[in-house]
Specification:
This protein is mostly helical. The chain has one domain. 60% of the residues lie in helices and 1% in strands. The protein contains 10 helices and 2 strands, in the order ααββαααααααα. A two-stranded antiparallel ribbon has the order 1-2. The radius of gyration is 22 Å and the shape is elongated. The two termini are 40 Å apart. The relative contact order is 0.10. About 17% of the residues have low confidence.
Length: 283
Amino acid sequence: MLDMSTRICAVILIAGGLAACAPRALRAAAAAPEVPITDARCTEGLFFEGRGCLAATKAAPPPGRLEQDDARFAMAIAALSLEPRCPAETVDDLLGVPPERKGRWQELAGAANAIAEGLEAFEKSDETHRWSAIASARSGILFARLATSLRACTLTGPSPIALFGVNDQMRIETMRAAGEHFRRPELIEKASELENAKLAFWTKRKASELEATEKVAIAKLGRGVALANAYGVAHDIFDRARAELSTLRAAIGAERMIDELASWLDPTDPSRRRRLDAVRGSL
């Protein structure tokens, strides 16, 4: 039977081809006793054995098991090696060239989504508020760091991302040089069209991906911190969650931050009416 860390690595490898996930997590998996998972964690075939979902049970996990599961999620996130710098050198390396190959962004986003699904299932399996708050904050930090890495992909600066790879850039420069040498303005115009089209594609795609990633980060961070505040959950992850919220607020502006928080319900409100923007002062 596959245990939690094995399943975490499996979904990451499937989603992103991330070979960095495994040795230590799998060794830890072998050493830990297996327990059945709850109904909520048997979701959409995410945790599986063979072709089907593991059999569900209402049995509570043994003492310390939730701590172990949380530590393995932390290990899976660390395996992504998300840094505050662009994860690729060219736009094609970052976004891929469909349908021939995926880009680094698709790999990272796919792995992050797989981990987030696991964290959401882990959160639903918790009958206390402690692990729900921690899981949500951990997921929010994951997406906030993913957004930071994409935001670092700029066309200017000390390590700019290039619109074109070396070969494509050489073709454009050759086309422009030929147009100038042979007095063929249509070649110069074509070279400029290619550059402008790639710039427009990059600008639009980056903005779209960044906005979507920031939305998830704000929702998860806000939910996690709100739960921690309401139920007195103590963990150093909430200091990191608040720091990521501050970074996001500085990046997107206070007005948009309020709008984003207003899109999500406050999980601590029994009436299910209050929005997270109403408690933003405590986030």
